Structures
1.
Amino acid sequence: MPTKTEKELYQGKPTTGHEWDGIRELDTPLPKWWVYVLYASIAWAVVYFILYPSVPWFTGYFKGVLGWNSRAEVAEKIDEAKRGQSRYLDRIKTQSADEIRREPDLLNFALAGGKAAFADNCAPCHGAGGAGTKGFPSLADDLWIWGGKLADIEHTVRFGIRSGHEKARSSQMPAYGTDGALKPDQIGDVAEYVLSLTGRSADKAAAERGAKIFAEEDKCISCHGKDGVGKADLGAPPLNTRIFLYGGSKAEIVRQVTKPQHGVMPAWADRLDDETIKMLTLYVHALGGGK
Amino acid sequence: MDGSATRAQARPVEDEEVKSVRQQIKAIAEQGDSLYVDRVRVYPKQVSGRFRALKWRALGLLLVVYYLLPWIRWDRGPNAPDQAVLIDMTNRRGYFFFIEIWPQEVFYLTGLLILAAVGLFLVTSLAGRVWCGYACPQTVWTDLFMWVERRIEGDRNARIKLDKAPWTGAKWAKKIAKHAAWLAIAFATGGAWIMYFVDAPTVASNFFTGRADYYTYFFVGLFTATTYLLAGWAREQVCTYMCPWPRFQSAMFDEDTLIVTYQKSRGEPRGKAAKGAVGKEGTGDCVDCGQCVAVCPMGIDIRDGNQLECIGCALCIDACRPVMAKLGRAPDLIGYDTERRIAARAKGEPLRYRILRPRTLLYGLIFAAVGLAMVAVLATRSDADINVLHDRNPLFVSLSNGSVRNGYTVKILNKERTERIFRLEFKGIAGATMRVVGLVETASWIELRADPDTVTTYQIYVSTDRANVRAERTDVSFVLTDITNLDTATRSTWFYGPKP
């Protein structure tokens, strides 16, 4: 800044000496009250500094005379929210999923709680929104391997599938190929028949041969039923729909008959509380496929 | 020079006044070099004249509107507030006579603000700072406070004397009376403000019986304090140091904008009006009586030219006019003028005032366009609306029978105060059926109930045979029809499916 300021032409006011394209910057003095406001702000800052957490140090910080901190405030808010939720959670604890579903305000709360719990626990396998993927069934469609009623879903969530829990759902499809029960060309015929159940068969003769094997007493029909309609109480999925957990192409069906994959779902009763499981059940049921 | 003023009988003003004005001008000039300056107290003198009268009228009108508007009733039927102008924060509704605004229609407010801004630009480019001088709340309330001050403490000279005088009982009495009156007006102002946000009669009675809530007392207190401080104490400091508008309003100015200005070419050099003569040879029309400075609420000298501090209140015009008349000189030594007229006058060319200029045309066009758009939107505003959110995850679901299902969250906005039944149809894909969980299993159209004066949400699944889905994404729409009055609202969305 220049030490000697120039006076501006018209009113003789001082300038800073700065000039841009002929426009000169006036050096207008501040009003005193403005300066006092600055001093007051500084005084306020000092008070604030003493009352609230302020100076950081290598091993911590000055905690302030009031002892306030934002984490304690958050914890308090969370407690408050929990207390607010308890009037719903207490009712969810004592009522069945069916009963909860009949009370709109309770159902609303349960769906919101279920959505949060689903994102935390279920979405990694079943996908956000329950879309599922190969090997992890969709929860939004209308096909349920173990049943789609509220009670069925709750049982599955609570005890899991092949989870090791004593009440876990469990099914074991024999490995027809690797056990030698069926020869590879027979398996091909069975696969062709399964394709024909959904109207996709290309080889009628093979499908007819496959149908005979399918209907043998100790073969497919005993679990998947006549025409492959499936049996939910055995965990045997229907084969006459477009939905195949491990893929619906001929090669994929052949592989599943030869040496089946068996997915595992944990028993959530060991990990989640009763209310959360009920909320999850209602949420999954409401994804679009609930029976 | 005008030669008719040969017999001006007396010096038009008292010596004392000229002295005080000189001191004021000197005080302003002297503090130029320091970093901080004391505020030079402004003691505006009472003035009467054309513009003062106009300002009183504007003040009266604006205050009446401000204080009385919340008390106007407007019948909207049962279960609705009957206050004509109300911003109902708790229920998220805005009411303005026959208009009711929901939060999702807040763009009306945006439109209103754009209109206000462009209107301000238009007026400013035409007539300069008329907003500052006549209509700004800071000006209106400062004027009102000054009027109170004058009634209690007297006019300029009396007030200067009173402030210099020792603290006697009479001085205490006057000061206490003045501040009490100011606080009373400030309280009425703060009290009126909150009435725009809650039912006026209810809050007024609750307030005085101690039943109003904490926020009511807080905001009344806040606005009482700010009114008292800004109009009583801060006054011209608000315009000079706090308000951003004086800093950028010059961007709307051009050489045809009206400004309050002093005709330098005619007034200079200033000279005393000698008794019985027009003054010495070579003196201008300005007799340096100081009236323009004495009446100025901003404490400036208009003869220094157009300044940031000048709010364009035109009181100096009123002050100068009788002086010129008394001396028999031409009026409007200080007056509304434009830079083009000033330049033309100096060259002896004819004086012109152009209203139609590129900037005024542009501001006018924008104003008209936004205004028309607002009117059109308001006129076609429907009492029912539909919003549709397509489920994002999963985008679609393949069902066991080979059909494809999409999920939608449908929100029905019922702006009426009675329950309504709507028929919802899905258009764009052949053979599509709708399902509402728990309500309807499959139907090609469904009837839905919409609760009064709120948004009702439904989760709706639309399914169709895979053969009907010809693309990964198909344009579709939901059509909502009121089954009684056949009001319709349509919302377009998409239907997703597997690769065909």
2.
Amino acid sequence: MEETIDRILRKYPAGKKDSLIPLLQEIQRESGHLSDSSIAEVSRYMNIPLNKIYGVASFYDQFRFGKQGRYHVQICHGTTCHIYRSSAFQAEIEKILQVKAGQTTKDGKFSLEVVNCLGACGNAPVMLLNGIAHGNLTTGRLQKILSRIKEPNE
Amino acid sequence: MNNEIDIHTEEKSFLLEKVLKNLTGEFLKEDLEQISLLKRDKVITPVIYIGTGSCGLVAGASQTLEAIRKYLSDNRIQARIVECGCIGFCSEEPIVDIHLPGKARISFRKVTEDKVEDILSAIFNRNVNDDHVLGQYKSGPAETWANVPFIDQLPFFALQQKVILKNSGYVSPLSIDDAIARGGYKSFYKTILNYTPEKVCDIVELSELRGRGGGGFSTGKKWKVALTTAGDQKYLICNAEESDPGAFMDRAIIEGDPHRLLEGIAIASYAIGASYAYIYIRSDYPRALNILEEAIRQAKDYEILGQNIFGSGYNLNISIRQSAGAFVCGEETALIRSLEGKRGTPWAKPPYPAESGLLNQPTVVNNVETLANIPGILEYGPLWFKAIGTKTSKGTKLFSITGNVQNSGCIEVPMGTKLSDIIHHIGGGVKGGKKLKAVQIGGPSGVCVPAANLEVEIGYESLQEVGAVIGSGGLSVLDETVCMVDLSRYFMEFLQKESCGKCIPCREGTKRMLEILEGITKRPREESTHETLERFKGVVQLESLAEVLRDTSLCGLGQNSASPLLSSLKWFREEFEEHIFDRRCEAAVCRDMRTFYIDVDACNGCNVCQKKCPENAIIGVVKVPHFIVENKCNGCGICFEVCKFNAIIVK
């Protein structure tokens, strides 16, 4: 883990504060989230106080401080998806997977995130499962998709 | 393999030397022949186009693509597959086009993986699958298909005028060759060789192009300020942080024709004397991001970007910065802060970024659509551009039309088009024969236009007649099943979450307004406590609070945060009053306002609803119709969902 952080850090010049966000983005991309230890590393390397880094990271929706589930569900809550009652679908997901928006289940299997707009309004309501989009959701389709990940045929 | 590389090197030098650098517009006959092959106007082997923009992918284009590949290899058919951007018709995706030698290009709609075999085997036998045909393209001497409409005559396309999206659907966004064959980078070459930066600013100012991000400021004037302000290093920033829910025009441009945007950025950078340009793009657009990265790599490879471009001594480096997700970063000063690695909070203008922006240097922030207009203006001249549109609003405008509408997608219409034409002709009217209620323009910072006012023309000033703004260009069509109070609450919730917290009116005001709106849409446990009084008081305060926010907030987010609410209050006041006084939601959207009844004739007393009711609000015995106790019911609607006999009625 630490090696990964070191490798990423070395790609960025130490003093340049404007590369903080791309740096954090790359760490999150590689390790799934921003851990306390990785932020401490960044703080030492970039010579930026810890609280400033938390200040920046917590400002943006993208950064996560906890781990993401193995199955990461993102439900779109843009205007069109809202009109097509995406909040009801969100409630359904929360009920089936036993997870609240912005959280990960204890076993680390599922996590749920509400996103602003995926720009695929022609197929509203839309959700992403591990980055793969599913459009034109109906309760039936949603249940089918979720039952596949709930009890995978392993 | 070597042979392939040789062919490509040959093509590349042909495109660079004979197409891009040919400013006369006169070509030798054999060159024209080769260009038409490169443009795929004429094909020798069959070409299959598939729209793999984000909207296509959501509809299942990647599975369709696999099925097409499998079909071709199973049947040993030699054909070229071109993955292109979207033609704008999102609701008909996945769209697959087939261009057979000697025949016109024909387009099919809703080609999901299971339909591929039927459609392809029919078309290779010169038959057309009528269920899925969308239309055919006009293509010179090629033979047309009988009884197939022309695509530009379909209602969805007939009123559109494609200028920015001209190449979208024709070119592969991953191929710079396609772009150059269709005239890409020609304007940049002409500009850099023939015009001084001052001259470019003059041309753009003369064209009367105005910023498409919502502000509507003259682009040429903005550039001139940056050009004439002294600075060690100037910057151009392309704002692709398109986070208005319901807007995806920028995504369509990038995924359809990324080189048009890069050319626009290159010309703009040259015009303000910037050697560094940034594209600030949303992280929720992974496909657009990959396409842009590849487009920049190819442009560098062709030496269109980099050092000493076309031997002129001008250097330009374009880099991509991924936004970390904050709606407020669509505001230019907040965007600059974010690029500097800070919290994305705006600053009070002046100083304007054109005077002191990124790292305190002169910086121009332009929207994707604004920049995508630039190559056309330089190619055909400012007068050509000025001829499109209305007196004060020139050119075309992109809209993403979504919501309860028949045809949804991304459209391009000349300024001055009537809103009703967009909704009823291009959009095909409301889905499912329902009644149109309103059109929401511009997302959370925009307003609603009621169905009665749709005769208004699109333009910066003309829309103000009905109190609307052009905003970024999201159009949401709302039918009678939409509750305006709920929609206002939705937008307020969005803005409250996205408020950056720097200025107090916005931080506290959005929170208070959301509380008031939630008070209106929630059912109180009792009507006698102070909560009821608070609710009525809140409503009285709602309007004045909205006005304070508009007048005192620091940036556009706060200033416009009350617009959707104020316009809904203006046009749909009775709906608000109904929620407040009668505790009723006509559209049955607000959960706590709903009342459920059991139809005694339909209920057979199966007892399922009683078991599922979380509030024990349903009474009754098996095989006898049940009854819902109204003041126990919390309106969750679970009984409605579980009833198999449609015995539950919602009011």
